[in-house]
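Pipeline run #58 for the internal structure catalog. This entry was flagged by the ingest filter as a single-chain record with no existing model, so it goes straight to prediction. Upstream metadata was stripped on purpose; only the residue string is passed forward. Reviewer on rotation: M.T. Logging verbosity set to normal.
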Amino acid sequence: MQGAACVADPILAIITWMKNTLIQAVKADDLAPGAMTCVDVGGQRILVANVDGVFYATDDTCTHEDASLSSGSLKGELVKCPLHGSRFSLCTGEPMEDPAEDPLRCYAVTVDGGVVFVEFQAPDSP
């Protein structure tokens, strides 16, 4: 299934708890199984994917070239880069096929009240 273009500023709520920040990414019902999308969180492009009802979040940019993974394809827990065909595990971020060698950053995901939240580590206080 093909991904969608990156959605700018989908944030509806930010909840800070113990130096972690939960960012409201998408409504769970808006991302069908086998679909993925890109959300922009403060300039950071995050891929959110629904794999058989389980949600995953990783960086959206391929580690090999500057390509949006949400514009690629999703097969099971693997996302394929549309530029050179590298495949990455959404579970671990690890590249499964060349030419990419570096892993994607993965983010913890929580679904609460039908909303998908992506967890970020908040910056340290001065």
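catalog note: The domain at 6-120 is CATH 2.102.10.10 (Rieske Iron-sulfur Protein).
catalog note: The first strand starts at residue 6 and ends at 7.
status: ready for reviewer M.T.
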